Amino acid sequence: AGPPPLEAAPMGGPDAPPQLPPLQAFARHEMYFKRLMAERTDTLKQLEAVLAKHQQQINGVKEKNLAVTQKIKELDGLVDTERQQWRERVAEQQRILQGRPALA
């Protein structure tokens, strides 16, 4: 005739911890919730501090980047000026050499 019908197991089963009275369970959950909220608050404060520190570092790097960019632009201008002066000197030398008679 087959296996006996399954019966519903009692709440929690044989290995479950004993059930607490409702007020005690509520108090335990309330303490747990408050502890979690305190840990959350501490974690958020730490996160804000780390973010502020990194934002300061980013701002410092941006300032250095602007300074380096400005110096590179200045150097680029100086190189262009020097390059133009060399072109003018070479052109002048070529004009001088073209005006001389060839050496025999």
What does this structure look like?
Residues 37-64 form a coiled coil. The protein has one helix spanning 22-99. It is an all-alpha fold. The mean pLDDT is 87.
Would you kindly provide a brief summary of this structure?
The chain is an all-alpha fold. 75% of the residues lie in helices and 0% in strands. It is rod-shaped and about 120 Å long.
Shape: rod-shaped
- What percent of residues adopt helix (DSSP H or I)? over 70%
First and last CA, distance: 131 Å
Count of DSSP-assigned helices: 1
| Average of per-residue pLDDT values | 87
Largest sheet: none
Strand proportion: under 5%
Task: Please give the structural blueprint.
Elements: H1 22-99
Question: Top keywords for this entry?
Answer:
coiled coil, 75% helix, mainly alpha, rod-shaped, 104 residues
